[in-house]
Design brief:
Blueprint: H1 2-6, H2 12-37, H3 41-50, H4 52-61, H5 65-86, H6 91-112, H7 116-125, H8 133-152, H9 154-162, H10 164-169, H11 174-196, H12 201-215, H13 219-244, H14 248-266
Amino acid sequence: MLTWLLDPLQFNFIIRALLASIMVGIVCSVLGTYVVLRGMAFLGDALAHTILPGVVGAFLLGLPLALGALVVGIATAIGIGYLTDRGAIKEDTAIGVIFAGMFALGIAMLSASGNYTVDLSHFLFGNLLGVSAADLWVISILSVLVLLVIYLFFKEFLVITFDPILAQTLRLPTTFLRYLLLILIAITIVTALQVVGIALMLAMFVTPAATAALLTRRLPVMMVVAAAIGTFSGVSGVYASYYVNIASGAAVVLVATIIFVVVFALTPSQK
């Protein structure tokens, strides 16, 4: 058993993959509790897909992929918030329009580059075992930034999540907090891009947090449980990818999904 655990650690790329999966598992799961409790899963999925033009643009210009993804992700988050605040169209409609348009733009840009199949696969499904030292630094910095903001605004996010009316009574800057949450989601998506890719991003936000929500209703405990599940899923996924020879991002998501199914089956009905 010990040999089974230690053998993969002789490779530096496995160690980098484990560190990246742990950090992404924690930050996605912690922020994912807000995504689940506020019913923002569709928004998270849309943001994950709308960063594709930024990733492709950075790729074609020879710039860091994270830079292009970050710029487009934050701009898209603000754009969705702006369209919704105007009240002309519903939030899900605004998300759907931007989601479809931006993702189509990314695919068009990628197809025009002449490397459509290979590169699209890389962007969509991630490359956890290909995480470089530079990627690891980017993931570390962005993860710490997101967790720090969540810590600083924990009480405010708690109030707007569970009691929006109280938030207005207390005169909290609800619009600012909503935009801040959207931006944090965009940053976290960039953080997880290399690990699970665009297509599987939603699972890292939703599945560990949804599993934790079955086990507890207290937000701090939910965040800790979700982070533990996300971390375990990331580490287990890396080992599964090494020994079973399957896609690393898919392995991480499958482990998280199996945990959810088991917990759901064993949890008494809330009715």
